[in-house]
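> run fold ABC transporter
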Amino acid sequence: MITIQEVSKVYSLESGDFFALNNNNIHINKGEFAAIMGPSGSGKSTLLQLIGGLDQPSSGNLIVDGIQLNNLNEKERTLFRRKKVGFVFQNYQLLPMMTVSENIALSLSANKASKTEINLRVQQLLKDVNLEGKGSQFPSQLSGGQQQRVAIARALAMKPQLILADEPTGNLDQKNGEDILALLSKLNNEEQITIVMVTHDLQAAAAAGRIIVIRDGEIVNDQKKGVLGHESMASSLA
Ligand SMILES: Nc1ncnc2c1ncn2[C@@H]1O[C@H](COP(=O)(O)OP(=O)(O)OP(=O)(O)O)[C@@H](O)[C@H]1O
Ligand SMILES: [Mg+2]
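> ok
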């Protein structure tokens, strides 16, 4: 599903070149739920943005769902993001002047779906994330956990095979965080949606079947869940 080959992201600073990502190789299979962990500034969000086509690498190849991202022009990149990837962010990134339904429908409208089609899909998505009846409210009228569930519904609107989530539980309390992780796990288990989730929280990462640890732009650990869960990861995160 995701193949990353010798990918680097370099920023030219006055002090010289800074490698936000340095020559990384990763393969993530369809249906995997992978967590990306590592200290602040280690390159986690940068990596997610490259996978999602929000940003381009300085060198190396990214292949997502059979598409070589390097070869896409701006327009193709926009279509790739809209059709192939659902993004979920820490601060939800809902549009405040739009209702919950309008937020969920954004990519459907952009893709010129019919009104009937949009309404049906939005009703189904509201049901899927347990927000039935909230469609005509505005984001500010919802709790943080509810807003994040709107963001997940929006991410799912185009039926993407891949969800990229950057600290999706970062702004939530324990209970709401667990609900969001349960929802992501359900999508992964029942619909085989591939999920790549950046998190600081080992408890959140435990929802994933694999933990990839980045430090200073390099992958320093990459482990699938074993019989002991992720316990053996603790040392590389310390
Ligand atoms: N536009 C930019 N110009 C220069 N440096 C940048 C730019 N964008 C990001 N960086 C640097 O790249 C590094 C990786 O940033 P990134 O946002 O990926 O970190 P992160 O692991 O997501 O951190 P956090 O956990 O705090 O979100 C950081 O050191 C950051 O300062
Ligand atoms: Mg980040």
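The pocket of magnesium ion (ligand 2) is lined by residues 44-45, 166 (CB under 6 Å).
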